[in-house]
Design a protein that fits this description.
This protein is α+β, with helices and mostly antiparallel strands. It is built from 11 helices and 18 strands. It has helices at 4-9, 11-20, 27-63, 67-103, 153-159, 170-189, 203-208, 233-238, 295-313, 359-364, 398-409, and strands spanning 123-128, 151-152, 166-167, 193-195, 200-201, 220-221, 227-228, 244-246, 252-261, 280-290, 317-321, 333-341, 346-355, 367-369, 386-387, 389-397, 416-417, 431-432. An 8-stranded mixed β-sheet has the order 1-11-12-13-16-10-9-4. Strand 12 and strand 13 (346-355) form a beta hairpin. Helix 3 (27-63) packs antiparallel against helix 4 (67-103) and helix 6 packs across helix 11. The structure holds one RNA strand.
Length: 439
RNA sequence: GGAGAGGUGGCGGAGUGGUCGAUCGCGCCGGUCUCGAAAACCGGAGUGGGUGCAAGCCCACCGUGGGUUCGAAUCCCACCCUCUCCGCCA
């Protein structure tokens, strides 16, 4: 959510930011509403101040035993009350209207983010690994002989419909090994704290991380009002909602392995075969809570954490900066990691790492108390709470990572050689045979 | 699901109709003392909003939403949440 003061102070910058995202300027609309709202607040509060004064006088009259005076004041109060109530109601309505408007306006891109309309304008900033030279035509994951017995879309369709999968045998072991390897790496090599969280959350949490109010149709809701999280960003980030942290506690770097649920409402027809795009999938998520000043450094760090996983797996990838027109709603800057999928002969998104600045924190009312500079301890310099910065990134999407491992490791005979880093997690097994057996 | 207790400022914990935005303790900040620190003592400090060049003034906030009253943290109603015990259960 945007800070109305910032818009008031610099409406041009606000509109320029929106323009960079390909959106119409909204400052005049927002500020017009803000002005109305403030005028109404003034009206309502003046009325309330009046009433408060009269109440006090009534109390004094009563204490002084002046019944006539008390009677007169009481009556004058009741006459004014309804008018003031109407003013208060209108003020609240305008306040809510402004808040609702601010809630649906996306975050502004940082200066350094490249301008552009869509994914064609994204900029590659890093490339690692060389796609293997296959001496045969590499297949997509669901067509590889050794994978077929372990990836059952027909049975999943019977149970749940399209965009679901049943994994069996060797493939489940690899899937599970990937999750463990990612978590262990983040915890031990990268110093993140592992959390295990609910996947059912209240609406407030979904508001905090921008899924609501604008993107309700992308997620699932239970009959009693809980939402199924589309990503652990929701639970991890909202752990600090409503809190005031001490600067010394920062940064807080978290990771969690969870199920994720997405309706994929806007993507019918896209990636319909295979398990690239599912309604239910697993992901290891990373979230950092820090000061706005350190957010960019943390963003770079988090990108490295995600890249490290792909490098450990020996999977070729590239990292791109999303252009202004392709960034998600809450992001100030986003890196996407794209892994090489030989079956598709393409790089495909496997991780998205974003800094939101104080945008989500403002929604969540998540703040920190800045450390005071030494020797400046006057009362007026006492540290006021400020909004935190929040960052999130996949580290990584496990299903997509599984696909990448299978496609990149496939052999001419339909077997799959698995990355060495996974062998310990497979009790020394190194490959899936063309018959689908882990050996 | 049943019974009970409770939700107050950064934390702990008072407060049961009118200078209570809230006693007190801890923690925090400044000062005195000290070579320096600790202790002790003195002083300061809630959050959000409106208004004003500013000093300041005003409004709201004691889980949430209603109600009673001239006036509510305090009384009434509904809801939410937490904790304890019992039951059931992975």
């Amino acid at each position: 959510m945007h800070d109305i003061r910032a818009i008031r102070d610099n409406p041009e910058a606000f509109d320029e930011g929106l323009a960079r995202r390909g959106l119409e300027g909204l400052s005049s609309e927002v500020l017009g509403l803000d002005e109305q709202r403030r005028a109404q607040i003034l009206l309502a509060e003046t009325g309330k101040a009046d009433l408060n004064k009269l109440s006090k006088q009534a109390g004094e009259a009563k204490a002084g035993g002046d019944a006539a005076q008390f009677q007169e004041i009481s009556e004058s109060v009741s006459v004014r009350k309804s008018l003031i109530a109407a003013n208060v109601e209108l003020a609240e309505a305008l306040d809510e209207k402004l808040r609702d408007m601010l809630m649906t306006i996306p975050n502004l891109p940082l200066d350094e983010v490249p301008d552009g309309r869509d994914e064609a304008d994204n900029v590659e900033i890093h490339r690692w690994g060389t796609p293997r030279n296959f001496n045969f035509a590499p297949k997509e994951h669901f067509d590889i002989e050794g994978v077929k017995p372990g990836m059952d879309f027909a049975t999943a369709a019977k149970l749940s419909g399209s965009r679901f999968v049943v994994l069996k045998g060797a493939v489940t072991r690899v899937h599970r090994a990937l999750a463990q390897m990612m978590l262990d790496t983040h915890v031990e090599d990268h110093g993140l704290t592992e959390l295990w969280t609910p996947v059912l959350v209240k609406s407030e949490a979904m508001y905090g991380t921008n899924q609501l109010p604008k993107f309700a149709e992308d997620s699932y809701q239970t009959t009693n009002g809980w939402w199924l999280i589309p990503t652990a960003e929701v639970t991890l980030t909202n752990t600090v909602a409503g809190e005031i942290l001490e600067e010394a506690q920062l940064p807080i770097r978290m990771t969690a392995h969870t199920q994720c649920f997405r309706s994929e409402a806007g993507s019918s027809g896209k990636d319909t075969t295979g398990m690239l795009r599912q309604h239910q999938f697993e992901k290891v998520e990373m979230v950092t809570i820090c000061t706005p000043q350190t957010a960019l450094a943390e963003h770079a760090r988090m990108t490295n954490c995600a890249q490290a996983i792909l490098e450990k797996l020996g999977l070729p990838y590239r990292t791109i900066v999303l252009c202004t027109g392709d960034m998600g709603f809450g992001a100030q800057k986003t890196h996407d990691l794209e892994v090489w999928l030989p079956g598709q002969n393409k790089y495909r998104e496997i991780s998205s790492v974003s800094t939101c600045g104080p945008f989500q924190a403002r929604r969540m009312n998540a703040r920190y108390r800045p450390r005071m500079a030494e020797g400046t301890g006057k009362a007026e310099t006492a540290a006021k709470p400020e909004f935190l910065a929040t960052l999130n990134g996949s580290g990584l999407a496990i299903g997509r990572c599984l696909i990448a491992v299978l496609e990149n490791g496939q052999q001419a005979d339909g077997s799959v050689e698995l990355p060495a880093v996974l062998h310990p997690y497979l009790r020394g097994k190194t490959r899936i045979s063309s018959a689908g057996v882990l050996e």
